[in-house]
Amino acid sequence: MKYKRILLKLSGESLMGDKAFGIDNNRLATYASQIKAIYESGVEVAIVIGGGNIFRGVQAEEGGMDRTHGDYMGMLATMINSMALQAALESVGVQTRLQSAIEMKEISEPFIRRKAVRHLERGRVVIFGAGTGNPFFTTDSAASLRAIEINAEVILKGTRVDGIYSADPEKDPNATKYDTISFDDAYGKGLKVMDMTAFTLCKENNLPIIVFDMDTPGNLQKVLEGEQVGTIVRN
Ligand code: GTP
């Protein structure tokens, strides 16, 4: 395996599968089996999952709700997805620990960096819920922050697209996919990899990001094996 310790960022929306809202059990099971495969090959896996299938703070603001209030609701949404993923992983025999950035000790450990690292060393998949615990940060930022804190070698950003393109491939037939791109070039070309807070954290801490299509089974394993899947962004 190319990497020993990774942080996998999953999107909440992807968990919907073909549904309009909430969690699609088939999609959840597909994710669990993909994660199980890499876990069994000894990779240390930490996971951050978004909450957009349930609630988005930004949309709440558009409806007149205070942004911070909406963001906290979004953090709770990530906990629902984290718990669903935890259950799905444990049902296929993957040991997990869930840590929350907002204390809810009846259902999750609090986030404690040193404990998270110990869990990883002992072969447990660690899921980080509730984002960073702060409004105005996305789950991409939470993923970047946690990845740096636990010394992950790379962030694997699982999306519905298979990498980063020079333009929107749905609108521009000449759009081409990058295999590799530097942080500076991605910024210079205005390509959207993650929000700027997350992007800058990764760049400044020399943490590469691989954007890949998580909805194609087997892709996660291929990324770990060092196959050219998706786009790698690095310094
Ligand atoms: P080691 O210390 O490495 O043995 O880790 P461990 O996680 O097995 O030990 P610990 O005794 O800390 O945890 C046992 C179980 O309780 C695990 O499933 C933890 O996730 C869970 N747990 C630990 N702390 C908390 C907490 O504050 N709240 C909740 N809900 N569960 C917790």
Using brief descriptors, characterize the structure shown:
alpha/beta; globular; 37% helix; 9-stranded mixed sheet; binds guanosine-5'-triphosphate; Carbamate kinase; 235 residues
Q: Largest beta sheet, briefly?
A: 9 strands, mixed
Q: What kind of assembly state do the chains in view correspond to? A: single chain
What topology, given as strand order, has the largest sheet?
A: 4-3-5-2-1-6-8-9-7
Which architecture name does CATH use?
Answer: 3-Layer(aba) Sandwich
Average pLDDT for all residues: 96
Low-confidence stretches: none
> Structural class given helices, strands, pairing?
alpha/beta
Distance between the termini: 22 Å
Query: Number of helix segments?
Result: 8
Number of domains: 1
CATH homologous superfamily classification: Acetylglutamate kinase-like
- How do the helices and strands follow one another from N- to C-terminus? EHEHHEEHEHEEHHEHE
Molecular shape: globular
Helix content: 25-40%
Could you tell me which ligands this complex binds, including any ions or cofactors? guanosine-5'-triphosphate
Beta-strand percentage range: 15-25%
Question: Which helices and strands appear, and what pairs or packs with what?
Answer:
Elements: E1 5-10, H1 25-40, E2 44-49, H2 57-62, H3 67-91, E3 96-100, E4 109-110, H4 113-121, E5 125-129, H5 139-149, E6 154-159, E7 180-182, H6 183-188, H7 196-204, E8 209-213, H8 219-224, E9 231-234
Parallel strand pairs: 1-2, 1-6, 2-5, 3-4, 3-5, 6-8, 7-9
Antiparallel strand pairs: 8-9
Bound molecules: guanosine-5'-triphosphate (GTP).
